[in-house]
């Protein structure tokens, strides 16, 4: 048996399903958590759940620009949750962050499903054409795989709340 | 541009690299942790680091049989770390578990790299041929993607020690 172009689409769909599984698990757990639980620390002295939530919203929102899918929905979150540690500046209300989480993923999930295999194997927006020619693994699909692990990493923390 | 069989190997290699990245990160962090840190709880009342380590050894060791790569190296860990909760039965010494972690991955990583794309898209050992015919996504590659998320999930916890 030889693998074919059909397999490429099939394999990319497996990677998309792995991503969606992580989002769905997080969704379900988030529904079970009260705001008070979410606002507590995941472990003594560590990030609060609400900061981890904001961080994941910001990282997912950033995929719109990184993967060429459009503009970020909540660009103000980038500084707050990617470049600023927890408990140094005020952050949006927990209810707002829950809404952002659903909004970003509701738009992101179908946009990811719309990318073609050729697009998945093309460069993402943070790598130059020159560097991409040397390192073709720096493609959109690799971003998805890496973000799936990142999402799972933080889910392992949120589950401790 | 059409995708080709070459792309299939290329994409599978991306998934393998994502897996190896998680193993390497865990390795590096494990080296930094003292036995005492590893024997403490990841959060109050939660699993000890050493239990999470044993769990990951058992899950990785199980990949030998699940992916048709050979026999498990430490079959006695399956009951201890997959079916038994932490702090209910005695577990191996921390130094032993560290050794098992390295041993299993040292054998597993090259074995995974040796699978062909056709084998990756073939069924894993826990699904029947009949069920696999209906659900071809239940292949070896899907196991790898799922275990990569699982490894990242627990790394997000070990990092709290």
What are the main properties of this structure?
globular; 161 residues; homodimer; mainly alpha; 66% helix; DinB family protein (chains A, B); DinB/YfiT-like (chains A, B)
Note the topology:
Two copies of one chain form a homodimer.
Chain A: H1 5-32, H2 35-38, H3 49-66, H4 77-83, H5 94-114, H6 117-120, H7 129-134, H8 140-158
Helix pairs in contact in A: 1-5, 1-8, 3-4, 3-5, 3-8
Describe this structure in words.
Two copies of one chain form a homodimer. With 161 residues, chain A is an all-alpha fold. The first copy, chain A, is globular. Chain A has helices at residues 5-32, 35-38, 49-66, 77-83, 94-114, 117-120, 129-134, 140-158. The interface between A and B is large, with 43 and 43 residues. Chains A, B: InterPro entries: DinB-like (IPR024775), DinB/YfiT-like (IPR034660). Chains A, B: This is DinB family protein. Chains A, B: Pfam families: DinB_2 (PF12867). Chains A, B: It comes from Dawidia soli.
Structural class of chain A: mainly alpha
Question: Globular, elongated, flat, extended or rod-shaped: what is the shape of chain A?
Answer: globular
Subunit arrangement of the protein = homodimer
Rg of chain A is 17 Å
* Residue runs with pLDDT of under 50 for 5 or more positions of chain A: none
Output the helix-strand order of chain A: HHHHHHHH
How many distinct beta strands of chain A?
A: 0
H/I helix tally of chain A: 8
Output mean pLDDT of chain A: 96
Distance between the termini of chain A: 48 Å
Give the proportion of residues in helices of chain A. 55-70%
Identify the most extensive interface between protein chains: A-B, 43 and 43 residues
Protein name (chains A, B): DinB family protein
InterPro entries (chains A, B): DinB-like, DinB/YfiT-like
Domain DinB-like (chains A, B): 19-158
Organism (chains A, B): Dawidia soli
């Amino acid at each position: 048996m030889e693998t074919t172009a059909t397999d490429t689409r099939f394999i990319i769909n497996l990677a998309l399903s792995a991503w969606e599984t992580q989002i769905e698990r997080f969704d379900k757990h988030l529904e079970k958590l009260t705001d008070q639980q979410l606002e507590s620390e995941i472990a003594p002295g560590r990030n609060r759940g609400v900061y981890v939530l904001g961080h994941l919203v910001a990282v997912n929102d950033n995929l719109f620009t990184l993967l060429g899918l459009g503009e970020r929905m909540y660009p103000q979150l980038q500084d707050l949750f990617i470049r600023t540690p927890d408990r140094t500046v005020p952050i949006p209300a927990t209810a707002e962050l829950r809404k952002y989480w659903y909004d970003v993923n509701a738009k992101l999930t179908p946009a990811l499903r719309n990318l073609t295999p050729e697009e998945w194997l093309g460069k993402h927006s943070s790598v130059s054409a020159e560097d991409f020619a040397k390192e073709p693994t720096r493609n959109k699909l690799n971003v998805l795989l890496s973000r799936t692990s990142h999402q799972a990493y933080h889910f392992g923390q949120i589950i401790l709340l």
